[in-house]
Design brief:
The chain is mainly beta. 9% of the residues lie in helices and 34% in strands. The longest helix has 15 residues. The strands form two sheets. Strands 1, 2, 3, 5, 6, 7 and 9 form a seven-stranded mixed β-sheet that branches. The chain has a three-stranded antiparallel β-sheet with strand order 8-4-10, with no helix packed on it. It is built from one helix and ten strands, in the order αββββββββββ.
Amino acid sequence: MSRAMMLLTLVVLLALAAPAFAASDITVTVTLAQVGVDVSPTSWALGTMAPGGTQETTGRHFTATNSGNVPEDFTITAGASTPSGWDPAAASDVDEYRMGVTTDAITDQALAPSYALASNVATSGTVGFDLKFTAPAAGSTYDAGGETITVSLSASAH
């Protein structure tokens, strides 16, 4: 047998005798939690009010929607007014206003300054709510051009 033929035979025998290895892959897929809330409508014009006067929406005028990809908890917060700096409070007083929230579960809960509006809201789920505003009592400072109050909704993963 020639040297080349012996070498070829040896290579074939080694290949046949070698253990067989199989490969398998693992595909890893990940989606990051995204938290978001949208509210509609985004404004409420109260017009001119008397000191201590009250106005409220009805029929679940506002809607908060879970725009994230995980179940969420919603918190609603009332901030100080601008430019006069009225603060939210449990009751209307001098330089303090009262903002209440109503849902199917609660009635006229004061935002002083925040409240847990809803828990475990499903993706694309909604929560309807109404707001009730009571102006500061007589003697309050105010701007003749009007006051702006920001009511914020925030979301956190449940």
